[in-house]
Amino acid sequence: MHAPNAPRDDRRLTGRAAAVGILPTLTVAVLVFVLAYDGGGYSLASRASTGIAVWWMLFLGLGLGLVRFLPVPRPALAAGVLLAAFAAWTVASAAWAPSAEAVLEEFNRVLLYLGIFTLVVLAARWVPARA
At a CB cut-off of 8 Å and minimum separation 6, what does 114 contact? Predict the structure, then answer.
């Protein structure tokens, strides 16, 4: 114990901050393990199922009110807009590409990247910086 006027050791996280900080860490660890176990996530089926899971997490989080709309930093917003523009350019390339299937596979990949980026930007706002 320390005296009432003594400085506190602020390096330890409180119970709530530790729980909030550990949940995203465990989620990412489990997701990385599952993708690694599935051949590294290189197959189209693996990417598609991961993309569906990521977008469902976003839609459910926003739809159920689990995510509050906090201001997004300008660099993150700029990067997100550029990634969305890249997704639009990728799908537009179906007009001149020799294979529309290959375009849709790459569009699937870019949408996965966009979903993960969006999830990370929003999740970074949920977790306290100290966690």
Answer: 80, 83, 84, 87
